[in-house]
Design brief:
There is one protein chain. It is built from eleven helices and eight strands. The chain has 259 residues and is of the alpha/beta class.
Length: 259
């Protein structure tokens, strides 16, 4: 396992691909770790030096007291890039990772070459939703949340036909520290980037899932409308489109960043 020091602790990261290739950062969703990108790593590492990392509060990275902010999570990425001596990189984020990508595209334009914003939105959910999840995680742990979260991550058809994938994601979710999950909930609760995403100048790919109830396609279409010159792709999947529609997702991302 590889770690780099940032403010407050360490970030767990992993490289795949040739060290001489352009760097592509992959940023995971709330309640997951860098393992959610296993289905993309082989494809993307053919042409990129893929940098996967666990967001603060998740996986093997630092867990600091809640609440977190999207700004803090974005600055974690900048500190990680600085420590790894990476001046500029492509960035692909899913859900919360997509909001981190938006923050970087708005506030650290010099560090981002291209952006892929996947199954995300400039405003996700309601304060009531996130407060309820925070309270549940802190008081009861992750287990009681798992069924409802998985039902948002995948369509009913995928839950039935891919039990191994679902079991793997359940394991990752259950391993997420409750304090870290609550911190991420707070970051999403307090983030509203709707008035700012128009400032993103990096070439941007927006990916949505037709069956995504957590971040419905309307949120992706809003991003594509507000970000000048962006491209919109809608896949037949729910929230974890990189897993449920792994092949078209990987092809869309690889083609976009290779252009």
């Amino acid at each position: 396992m590889s770690f780099v020091d940032i403010t407050g602790g360490r970030i767990h990261y992993r490289f795949d691909g040739d060290a001489k290739s352009p760097v592509l950062v992959l940023s995971n969703s709330l309640g997951t770790d860098l393992g959610i990108w296993d289905g993309q790593a082989a494809t993307l590492s053919k042409n990129f030096r893929v940098l996967r990392y666990d967001t603060r509060g998740q996986g093997g990275s630092l867990v600091t007291p809640a609440p977190y902010t999207i700004e803090r999570l974005g600055r974690d990425v900048i500190e990680m890039l600085d420590a790894l001596e990476i001046e500029r990189a492509h960035f692909c984020g899913l859900s919360m990772g997509g909001m981190i990508g938006m923050w970087l595209g708005i506030n650290a334009q010099e560090r981002v070459t291209k952006l892929a914003l996947c199954n995300t939105a400039a405003l996700i959910g309601t304060a009531e939703l996130w407060n309820t999840r925070m309270e549940a995680a802190i008081n009861s742990g992750m287990a009681p949340l798992s069924d409802s979260v998985l039902a948002r991550w995948f369509t009913p058809a995928f839950l039935e036909k891919a039990p191994a994938d679902v079991a793997r994601l359940r394991k990752i979710l259950l391993a997420t520290p409750a304090e870290g999950y609550a911190g991420g909930c707070a970051a999403l609760r307090d983030a509203d980037l709707r008035a700012e995403v128009c400032r993103i100048k990096a070439p941007t790919l927006v990916i949505a899932g037709s069956g995504d109830t957590a971040t419905p396609p309307a949120g992706g279409r809003f991003l594509a409308q507000e970000i000048s010159g962006s491209r919109y792709v809608e896949l037949q999947a729910a929230h974890m489109s990189n897993i449920e529609a792994a092949t078209p997702f990987s092809e869309s991302v690889a083609n976009f960043f290779s252009e």
